[in-house]
Design goal:
Blueprint (H helix, E strand, L loop, with lengths): L2 H13 L3 H11 L3 H16 L7 H5 L5
The structure holds zinc ion.
Length: 65
């Protein structure tokens, strides 16, 4: 997984409040802890702002939260 993709996945995990997945991606991709926490917080912020999630599952089912 490319670093950029790993960060994007952590952002999606943050959106879904999925800290287990985010932590797994973080540990598997040697991302700095600061980048990891910022990406996770960004995902949570997008959700709080009512933004649509960009992950594959949510695109398949746009009606579900
Ligand atoms: Zn999603």
């Amino acid at each position: 997984m490319k670093r950029k993709d790993a960060i994007a996945h952590i952002t999606v995990a943050g959106y879904h409040d999925d800290s287990r997945t985010a932590m797994r991606i973080y540990t598997e991709n040697r991302i700095s802890y600061q980048v990891y926490t910022e990406a996770y917080a960004k995902g949570a912020q997008l959700k709080s702002e009512g933004m649509a999630c960009t992950c594959f599952q949510c695109k398949q089912r746009p009606a579900s939260a």
